Amino acid sequence: MNVSNASLLVLALAWLLLALASRAAPATNTPARPAKTYRNPIIDRRGPADPHVIRFQGKYYMYPTTDSRGYDVFVSDDLVHWEDKGKVFRDSRGGVWAPDVFENKRGDGKFYLYYTDNAPKPPEGKGGKQIGVAVADSPMGPFVDKGALADQAIDAHLFQDDDGAFYLYYVHLEGGFKIMVQPMADPLTKKGEAQRVIHPTEPWEKISGEVTEGPFMLKRKGVYYLMYSGTGADSPNYGVGYATAKSPLGPFTKYSGNPIAHRGGNVLGPGHHCVIAGPDGRLWMVYHQKASTNKGWDRFLALDPLWFDESGVIHAKTTKGTDEPAP
Question: Domains in the chain and their CATH numbers?
């Protein structure tokens, strides 16, 4: 082989090695795929508040306060992108607030909607607010009213314990805001007497009115965490706290670090929440924030993570207008 042929062979081998290397090496000029994010508000609509979310057959169903004449249902696959599917319950009495929907998985498989509305005013009575229950075969409704459960009351939440027992938490208004627990024989039927478990005692619960409302129950490692919102919901000082007990009936001890969600930065009046496991398996708080410092009902819906630390303390994050890692 002469020198010229040897040089050509070396050059050919060099080109071949370069081609193979370029195939094997990853492209360095391709941008990394961005992680999924969300940004609060989670729906482009001012006004909805007091959300409650359930998961059924892989989809999320959210029921917020909207027009006070009934409840819409919003449906999502990921807790971030929501579609309004319209009314699932209509109520001519008006003042319809703060829904709670319970799927009776271990019973009849039906869905129970606990509503707040305006109570009819009897000749000798006060009228005011009441909570009641309606039933449907599907989370999409329609929910059929089964009657009132408590007078002078708002913000119902049904909890089923591991042993199958039912407890209805709600707020009794007469004489001030008091969170009550009512044992239930089933999702429709009361059993025994209701008793008070939480009332306003702490400074943060009294900043803009003495209020404890919006109960929501979590259970973890044998401990009952009764979460609630404090001070006036029409105030930017609204916030979320919790209390713990060894029994669903109490006595409950308020966490010394309350509130765990509160006014700060550009976040105003975070509160009246629920907690749901996301597609990622983590816990998420769905709640509302106020849109301004004005006293009133200018609110929007939000989503942020909630978690327990190693000591069993609940922590929550609140954000507004920033890109955050999605569930």
Answer: 36-325 (2.115.10.20)
